[in-house]
Design a protein that fits this description.
Layout: H1 2-13, H2 15-18, H3 26-34, E1 44-47, H4 53-60, E2 68-72, H5 75-84, E3 89-92, H6 98-102, E4 110-115, H7 124-137, E5 138-148, H8 158-164, E6 167-171, E7 183-189
């Protein structure tokens, strides 16, 4: 309950950065975590963890805390995440400058990136730049996992990516049990 209160306070103070009306629900968080390859020991990066519902789902799935690097912009959320999840690496920084934010903070290629960023609040160029930076960090075969409240539109502009043939996208069925309903998208390098 205290996490929801902190979330709501941050939403009121800065709605553009929070971009949601409530934290991700357990079904959405579990769905996102289910697409992370838990084998191996490569780092897993979470963008915009907020109060940590997806982080908790990743840990519940069996991912060791030391494999997780959380990139959070809001200092209050960073403090909360460090308190809630000892052993997890919390980096305060801008996910839209991902390479710079993570420079010297992760070892080797990343297995997956899990994102709860409010992408549709950002200009298309920023979203594409984020995806390009993410795939510079993600190992071959890795995936960028993103959720959105837009049930029918990819948060990454697909037409532009199709022309570049750089990435593929798969939208999973809507998660009606989340409030509000959401959809998870999986982005991979085109073969």
């Amino acid at each position: 309950m205290v996490y929801n209160a902190r979330f709501i306070r941050s939403l009121i103070e800065n709605p553009r950065l929070v971009g949601a009306v409530s934290p991700s629900g357990p079904v959405l968080a579990k769905t996102m975590a289910s697409y992370v390859d838990i084998s191996g020991d490569a780092p897993i990066v979470e963008l915009g963890p907020g109060t940590g519902p997806v982080t908790q789902a990743l840990l519940d799935r069996g991912i060791a805390p030391e494999r997780l690097t959380l990139v959070e912009y809001e200092a209050k959320f960073c403090d909360l995440l460090r308190e809630r999840f000892p052993g997890v690496n919390v980096v305060q920084g801008d996910a839209y400058g991902l390479k710079k934010t993570l420079a010297g903070k992760i070892d080797g290629p990343v297995a997956s990136i899990v994102s709860s960023l409010p992408l549709l609040n950002q200009p298309e160029a920023d979203r594409l730049r984020l995806l390009d930076q993410a795939f510079e960090l993600i190992a071959p075969g890795g995936v960028f996992i993103q959720f959105t409240y837009s049930l029918w539109v990819s948060p990454m502009p697909l037409k532009r990516h199709a022309n570049r043939a750089a990435y593929t996208a798969e939208g999973l069925g809507p998660i009606w049990l989340n409030l509000p309903p959401a959809r998870v998208w999986l982005y991979k390098r085109a073969r």
